[in-house]
Amino acid sequence: MAERSTVPRLDRSFDVVVIGAGNGGLAAGAQLAVKGARVLVLEQHNLPGGFASSFVRGRFEFEPSLHELCDVGPPDNKGSVREFLEDDLGVEVDFVSVPEAFRLILTDDGLDVRMPFGLDAYIDAIDREVPGSRDVVRKFMDLSRESLDALGYIAEAQGNPDRKVLAKQFTNFLKTAPYSADAVADAVGVSEDAKKLLFPYWCYLGLPVSRINFTLFGAMLHKYITKGAYIPRHRSHELTTALDARIRECGGCIEYNTRVEQILVERGRVVGIKTARGDTIATNRVIANTSPTTVYNMMIHPRDEVPAIAYKYVNARIHGVSSFVVYLGLDASPDELGLDDYGYFIFPHMNTDALYESLQRLDVPIANAAICLNRAIPNCSPPGTTILSMTTLYRPEAWEGVRPEEYFALKSRLADGFIAMFEEATHTRVRDHIEEIEVATPETFARYTRTYKGIIYGYEPESWDGLMARLMSLKEDRFIEGLEFAGGFASRAHGYSSAILSGQTAALLTMKAIREKAEVAS
Amino acid sequence: MKVSVKGHFRDLFAFKRLVPKRRKRILGAPDTPVTSDAVNALARSLHPEAMHLIIDDIRDETPTTKTFRLVADKAAGTTDLAFFRAGQYLSIKTAVEGIAISRPYSISSSPREALDGFYEITIRKKAGGFLTEHIWNTWQTGQTLVSSGPAGFFYYDTLRDTNHIVGFAGGSGITPFRSMLKDILDNDIDLSFTLLYGTRCADDIIFHHELKALARKAPERLKVVVVCSEPDESWKGPRGFLTKDTLRNHVGDVTDTTFFICGPPAMYAFLDTELAELQRPVKRIRREAYGDILDITRYDDFPRDVIETTFTLTVHMGRETREIPAAATESVLVAMERANLAPPSQCRSGECGFCRALLHTGTIYVVPGNDGRRAADKKFNYFHPCYAYPLSDLEITVPKTD
Fold first, then answer.
1. Whole-angstrom Cα distance, residue B127 to residue B263?
2. Residues B10, A187: contact at Cβ < 8 Å?
3. Model-level pTM?
4. ipTM > 0.85?
5. Residue from B39, B259, B317 to probe the interface with A (highest A Cβ count within 10 Å)
6. Would you identify the CATH topology of the domain A4-52+236-317+461-521?
């Protein structure tokens, strides 16, 4: 095999190389460094974080992607993310709590309601809007909690749960895990009107509730409602810079402006990586904080080391959505503008199948998840100003035909309509106060992170490819020895908290493999 | 609580079938590789990491100013020029006596002309400027250059700005405005634009006839006023500096206007004072980035006691560590460039963060008013070397850049 002999001299060696310093890669790198592994994190951009970053325009520092972190919880009721960061990694982040769950505005239905955090308060609020729904909603939330408990048990059992324990203690979890959030809501008798108040978080997973796996949705909903939501005080850049600092403090290395072009593979196992600069680094363990789609199709070298099953694995799965965000720095205070809430979900209706359908078209968006950052962090911008961002989702294919010369005008046209829709739904006037505006599209997310098709979420967690299906397939999903994945495309699905915890999972699996190999060697 | 979705046994069976079902779907999928990604292709087209360019033509604009027409160097791998927004710049890399440096130059041609295959940059020779001296001596037709993709934020935005814009151009600060005026005509953009152009004397007016010709094409929307500060007797136009009186005389009511300012530092300072009286909101005054600070001691709070001092800068870059001299009155970026470390840089104005570096030890002076650092970067001791000056020995980490 002539091609193999061309593997160049390897310049350096590490126990583990992490490709990409997004949430997943940084979490993996920090976990490995804390555990004493010799780890190198390589990032093609000049900043840590991937989407978890920040950018400055004039007097404003914007949050590019985070709406609210799930699973952080207050210090006296820590969620998994806070536990992992503070207790496992020793990373301190100045988290600020988000005041309310959300304000939901359904323009066609004339619905405009504020939903609180706290299980009882949340159920009370639904019952107030849809009298008589208290019991069924509580049932849905109980099932959600059982999913969460079962996932906790499975994690404790390190992915090898006792089937008898599952069958006995988590029967409802087993019985709901194969179904969608909508199917489970129907099974317990949640009315269509009550569903409207139960399902707005659908957009954080990016597929209709008829297709979102219940386990994942229920666990997410329950965590938000019971533990609240948090954001880092100085945007996500504070979180990811803190992780970067911790990695270096523990002896790990991070190199920026360094794109990995190839993962070098010999006889089915990782032997090193090659950077775009031409440096080669020896390692038997790679954690890829990028999509399997990218890794198998573009990075494995030589190409014939990619087994046919890896292509099938990638092609069988449905890649997630990308995003379109309008960031506004406004020269009036939230009070002056009448922006009373932190998080707004604005949809014409809650038919998520129809909303999802709309994401395929390059039209003015109809689904809007808006954030007024000052409502969680009043001094996030100078006195008398406001940071407001509006996000929608697009199937990336909608953007595929866009030509460079129409790109800037297209952004403006879509942003114009999007802002108008927000103003109409909230009865506010923000347009006259725009001091800074920036618009991110799928192209923008691809520009800064090179994520496949600009996708911000990973593979769609339908039930067949939901959390349980993935976790129970971890072993058979491994096609190249020494290669793990972290981030939104990994086993825990997408969202900040999942991406962070996926890094922990990938790091622990990698440590285990290193230890086992050492035992075999001795 | 006991819940069933489709029946007790059906549900349990469905759970059991999860993994086999997934396996079956995967095995049934095609094993064809993915070979294209149009979204990343668009991203690379709009924001190439680097562009290889050839000087195709050089034009004298004034006795001290030349326009360089740049086309794609196809042999080096650049097939198309990135589209851009009128007002943006290219960061051009060049080597002066073996030392790699880069400088941002506003694109003076229009976005449409990039589609036609060329950019133009227009440079004024500075007396004693070592870089422009070098450019005048060495840049010939046929020479190749490397540049960044188009960058910068000095462009109008129809959602943000008023539809009447007043441009204040000083000297070679005229270059982005030529691009803007051409763009407005090329694309019939719904804007009216009054350009107030301050220059020393008639000989120094860059694009004079061309700007007048552009204005004649749409007199109801485009207006160009040239003001000379030191003209000879033959000059018939307005004299002096650009002031609030220039505004009053040529624009009148400025309630619904947005000011765009590009020129030398002295003009910024002067206009800040002149325009302060008008009490325009922050959003109605947009300034192009200042670029390299010519004399940091101009700032009153710059410590006087270090002016003569040269400190030691320890730079970790990639796997290398170098100790280099760093004069207190030169930016940390320039110190690294002098040592030929080829550090990353783009705006050279403190704002873009492209040169971001980690400060391990030592004290720096950050140029006031242009501290574009992220809040968390301040917390974790990152800084922008282009707008930071050493006040002690420093130890820093800078990412290696191609």
1. 17
2. no
3. 0.97
4. yes
5. B39
6. FAD/NAD(P)-binding domain (3.50.50)
